[in-house]
Every structure is written in C-alpha cells, then in structure tokens.
Specification:
148 residues; alpha+beta; Beta-clip-like; five-stranded antiparallel sheet; 3 helices; 34% strand; binds S-adenosylmethionine
C-alpha cells in the first residue's frame, strides 16, 4: 500500500492536479517546459499541487550556476533579498508580463501559486518573475503578452 507521502507526490501528475508539465518553444526557440491548465481555473483559486521548494543560494553557488549556464531556475527574492533556487513543479512556470497566476509564499521555503484571473483549459499558466528579470524593463521577454 502506498504511503500518504507518496500519494501527495503522485497527485501532482494526475488529472486532479489541474495542470500538466508540457513543452513549448516560445521562450528560447528550443524545446523547454511550461505549465498548461488541464481544467478551467477561477480567479482566487490556489494551484495547490504546483508547488516547490526555495533554496537560498550563496554568492558562490549563484556564480557557479551562472558560469555553467545552469541558472534557469534561479530567482532574486525581493522579500529575502538574496538569490534562490526553485525546485519542484513550480520551477516550470514561465514568466508573462500579464501573468494569470501570482506567487504565494505560505511558508518560508515553499511556494505555490494563486490564480489571478480566470484561465481556460489548455492555456499556459504563467507568473510575473519581476520587473527586470529579462533585461531592463524585461525588454528581452518573449511572453505572449509582449508579442501582442
Ligand atoms: C523557472 S524556468 C521556467 C521553466 C523553463 N521553461 C524550463 O524549461 O526550465 C525560467 C526559464 O524559462 C525561460 N523563460 C520563462 N519565461 C520566459 C519569458 N517570458 N521570456 C523568455 N524566457 C522565458 C527562460 O529560459 C528562464 O530562464
């Protein structure tokens, strides 16, 4: 019999989660991950199973990941005032300048998302990373909202 912990893990990959990790070429021109809604979502709902852990990085860790080109999951936390590594399915949420989800930090080292406006099944679920994540004023951003 599976443990409750295993169930809590597997549910993220079932229809019940309300999202799936899919693929897109929108952001870099090569295949990478994105989060797609597998049902309609209503503003205010919590995307409970698209969660992740945040690990604080030292300056050395940060520099090493950058130099190896492995900083794709690194964010600057304005609240914690340091760089952090995102782990878990939450790390696959891409940035949009008019995102349909927002970050929630229910516990110090865990993130999940709250739906900001209604999302239709099949739509990409996105979050706003920050004002200058993709260059000054996000001038290098490749999100759908910028394209429009
Ligand atoms: C936290 S990861 C998101 C998941 C990522 N697509 C992957 O497969 O690992 C952040 C990376 O996704 C890409 N990305 C996400 N949103 C983007 C955007 N609006 N414009 C350009 N690149 C974006 C960039 O490569 C960025 O470093």
């Amino acid at each position: 019999m599976r443990s409750k912990l295993a169930d809590a893990y597997y549910i993220r990959f079932t229809h019940q989660a309300g999202f799936e990790v899919s693929s897109t070429t929108r952001y870099t021109g090569t295949m990478e991950a994105c989060i797609l809604a597998t049902r309609d979502w209503t503003a205010g709902e919590i995307v409970q199973y698209c969660s992740g852990a945040i690990v604080d990085l030292t300056k050395e860790d940060d520099a090493k990941l950058k130099s190896e080109g492995r900083d794709f999951s690194v964010m600057v936390s304005t609240r914690k005032k340091c760089t952090c590594l995102f782990l878990g399915p939450a790390r696959f949420m891409n940035h949009d300048c008019d995102a349909n989800c927002e970050f929630m930090t229910p516990q110090n080292s865990t993130i999940s998302f709250k739906v900001q406006r209604d999302i239709r099944r099949g739509e990409e679920m996105t979050v706003y990373y920050g004002d200058h994540y993709f260059g000054s004023d996000n001038c290098e951003c490749r999100c759908l909202s910028c394209e429009r």
